[in-house]
Amino acid sequence: MANPGYGKRSVPGQRPRTNHDFAHLPAREAAIASYLDRLPDGADISVKTLAKVLPYGQCALGTALNRLQKAGHLRRGRERLETDSGGSRWITRSWWSRTARDDGWWATFARGDVPQPEPPPAARASPAPTRSRAHILLAALGRTAPVLSLSAADCAELAPLVAEWFARGATDEAVLHALTAGLPSPVHHPAALVRSRLTSKLPPEPVRQPPRPPRRILECAECGVPGRPEALPGGLCRACRGALPSDQAHSNAPLSPSAIHSYAAEMRAAISQGRRERASV
User: Fold this and answer.
1) Residue-wise pLDDT tens digits, 110-156
2) What value does the mean pLDDT take over residues 83-99?
3) Amino acid 249: pLDDT
4) pLDDT tens for residues 216-243?
5) Do 10 and 68 lie in a common domain?
6) Phi and psi dihedrals of 79, rounded to 5?
7) Last residue in a domain, options 169, 200, 231
8) What is the C-alpha end-to-end distance of the chain, expressed in Å?
9) Which structural domain range is residue 36 located in?
């Protein structure tokens, strides 16, 4: 395992594991991907650690991880986390996806807005009906206050009102106290009294702060330079993909003699400065 807060991080919205998840990869990359996929979150997936447990050297593992990144299974970068003291710190991340993702998906993930896939038809099927937490509380109400014993039909009708209490942060104890404290004697209509108290004593809605979107920066798999997701297709920056910068790609004109002399003078000055600094140590 890596140090706390580091290591592998699985992205959300992945499909269930199958025996053919990495069939599209070469044999070596498929074997490494299968191993990584079964590691728990927080596991150290650096090439040095993987070389100790897998039959591949660090260079081969580095190449394989870059290919997994190009195939859409892996991205490396940094994420800013809020601390308990109110500050923040940047954490190195290695995000893993069993499901291959394209560059657009990773760009969306880096912005903190991950679209969830549609569930399969079997998952969308309605589950067998079960009694809700609110229904169970109402059904057991007669044990706390026998005069408030309710029928099954009463429990089904009043359960949505209790569910609204739970949605506003109320505990079971708070609901029971609101329903049973200071009961009149006798109670002629238990269901009517419960409805009245659930409605008149409903707590206010809690003030919820909207969650902050995560701050993530993707990095080039080869040189580690940070950049916008759209500038790192396949997880590689422009230079590591072998493309020239735009100011060089469209200009083949040689440097002028004055520019060459100026550059040489700057290099000589930098070398001399470095020698003086080493001599003074």
Assistant:
1) 887 765 554 555 545 455 557 899 999 999 998 889 999 999 999 99
2) 81
3) 42
4) 888 888 888 888 888 888 888 888 887 5
5) yes
6) -135, 135
7) 200
8) 40
9) 1-113+214-281
> Do the Cβ atoms of 42 and 8 come closer than 8 Å?
yes
Q: Return d(Cα 70, Cα 102) in angstroms, integer.
A: 9
At 273 the pLDDT is: 60
Number of alpha carbons in the 13 Å side-chain half-sphere of residue 1 = 6
Determine the Cα–Cα distance for residues 171 and 133; give it in Å rounded to an integer.
Answer: 11
DSSP symbols for 90-141:
EEEEEEE-SS---HHHHHHHHTT-PPPPPPPHHHHSPPPP---HHHHHHHTH
> For 244-266, what is each residue's pLDDT tens digit?
444 444 444 555 677 667 656 76
What b/e string do you get for 186-216 counting C-beta neighbours within 10 Å, with b at 16 or more?
eeeebbebbeebbeeeeeeeeeeeeeeeeeb
206 belongs to a structural domain? no
What residue type is assigned to position 33 of the chain?
A
Tokens encoding 77: 């970068």
Question: For position 19, what pLDDT does the model report?
Answer: 86
Note if the bond before 184 is cis, omega within 30 degrees.
Answer: no
179-199 mean pLDDT: 92
Asked if residues 64 and 29 have their Cβ atoms less than 8 Å apart, the reply is yes
- Name the β-bridge partners of 35: none
* Region of 169 on the Ramachandran plot (φ > 0 left; ψ -120 to 50 alpha; else beta): left
Residue with structure tokens 């903190």?
A: 112
Q: How far apart are CA 191 and CA 97, in angstroms?
A: 52
